[in-house]
Amino acid sequence: SYELTQPPSVSVSPGQTASITCSGDKLGDNVCWYQQKPGQSPVLVIHQDTKRPSGIPERFSGSNSGKTATLTISGTQAMDEADYYCQARDSSTVVFGGGTKLTVL
Amino acid sequence: EVQLLESGGGLVQPGESLRLSCAASGFTFRRNAMSWVRQAPGKGLEWVSGISGSGGTTYHADSVRGRFTISRDTSKNTLYLQMNSLRVEDTAVYYCAKAGGAAALDHDFDYWGQGTLVIVSS
Lengths: 105, 122
Description:
The structure holds two protein chains of two kinds. In chain A, about 0% of the residues lie in helices and about 45% in strands. In chain A, strands 1, 3, 4, 7, 8 and 9 form a six-stranded mixed sheet that branches. In chain A, strands 2-6-5 form a three-stranded antiparallel sheet, with no helix packed on it. By secondary structure, chain A is an all-beta fold. Chain B contains no helices and eleven strands.
């Protein structure tokens, strides 16, 4: 089965840059990233590897090298503390990574 | 304004059935694929099923294939998930999600519902 691997946790100081990776054998060209805060539904923050939906701050950016996708948060703020999930698809399924808890401290 | 409102969750015993509904508004329902995504307590997101905008194509995760069926009624702007032979491990919050495109496996979920809790326990 298709799997996406994320680090369980990442820590960052306020104002610094946070990077969250997502690894898979065949990421394709449409990796998405979601932010989920406790008790809330997920929010799409990056789609098609690099695109930000309307309303998502410019400090969120994405990249994809083919086997590793990266979500980068520049100038991280306390409000960015959340769980982050990458997501991709293969021929017959959609897959989420296991999630990364981002701590801003 | 796009709104997705799930309903139908509850407490059931193993082996029983349940049907979830997701009432959609604020967009042209038939133009967008829809999916169900679940999240077990304290765990990550798991895609369950997806359906094309036309309803003609569906996909299900291996963990639910043969037990769950996704469908949609364009006349009612409603998405469904029929869940049969429920297991303890199906316990989760079930979200409906709208995709940006019309293909069943389009997975840029730009809008999510608030979720409905399904508990399978004896």
